[in-house]
Amino acid sequence: MTALFALATAILWGLADFGGGLLTRRIPALTVVVASQAVAVVVLGSIVLGTGAWREAGPQLWFAVAAGLVGPLAMLSFYKALALGPMGVVSPLGSLGVVVPVGVGLMLGERPGLGQIAGIAVALVGILLAGGPELRGAPVQRQALLLTLGAAFGFGAVMALISEASSGLTSLFLALFVQRVTNVAAGGAALWASARRGNPVLPAGGRSTLWSMLPALAFVGLADVAANGTYSVAAQNGPVTVAAVLSSLYPVITAFAAFALLKERLRTVQAAGAGLALAGTVLLAAG
After folding, report:
1. Angstrom distance (rounded) from CA 72 to CA 97
2. What is the pLDDT of residue 283?
């Protein structure tokens, strides 16, 4: 159960990142974040009302609020780090956030077996290599490195927080709704501040172009929501250490999506990383 839902999380996050990356080529990154999450708020709000999940409101929702505040900050730091580059270093380092939920699991008393420890180590190396790190001394600004590590910590914190925000399916819907409302509120405030500074917030072509991209924005937002949901189920039904590592295989999915749909050729180091990540997955699942 844990492995199945964690791998579903990796697929969903990988496809969401791929779709978001394509959209940011035409729409400002912050607008993509806010618009896609706004669609998710509408859908989740309907589910919460339809299932009566709002009745399960409780103190645990503060974890969802915290996740909603940390998420946009992490994403903005990540996008800024990507702008400073080099992308081949920034992208795989962003996946180091897996250390946070793994550390939480260990502090809570989880003790993976030797096979699982080997699987975690192999998978982590594979995740880093799958991003295609530049290994020939590409210069990295200190600011880019700090922003990337901050973003990675934020991504990992969201994983840890969202797994604590619910205890069942209906409460999970409510937690995800609260997280997304917080996302939109925080991201919307940042978008407003950006517009006040004179930065563009709409794509070339204005609102009509943005509306034409609504299906793609909806896909990105809903895939991200679904990934948070499947991760929460995985973490609640098995070791967090296993769920976190398997879920963090999403860079492999993004790389394969780019290869299949954009005909981008995988570098040798990326192909090797994908293979190691899959081998680590097998060891984790077997354990």
Report:
1. 15
2. 67
**CB-neighbour burial class of residue 107 (10 A; exposed 0-12, middle 13-18, buried 19+):** exposed
Rounded distance, CA 117 to CA 283, Å? 9
Residue 43 has pLDDT above 90, yes or no: yes
Concatenating the DSSP letter of every residue in 58-87 gives -TTHHHHHHHHHHHHHHHHHHHHHHHHS-H
pLDDT tens sequence across 263-274 = 766 667 767 776
**Residues 243, 250: Cα–Cα separation, whole Å:** 13
Across 230-247, average pLDDT = 82
Phi (first) and psi of residue 99, to 5 degrees: -60, -30
pTM of the model: 0.78
For residue 98, give both structure tokens.
């897996």
Residue closest to 230 by CA, chosen among 128, 150, 145, 159: 159
Q: Rounded to whole angstroms, how far apart are CA atoms 75 and 79?
A: 6
Token pair for residue 49?
């009302």
- The span from the CA of 129 to the CA of 134, in Å, is 9
CA 11 – CA 29 distance, rounded (Å): 21
For residues 264 and 260, what is the distance between their CA atoms, to the nearest angstrom? 8
Q: For residue 91, what are the CA distances in angstroms to 17, 40, 149, 198?
A: 11, 25, 11, 28
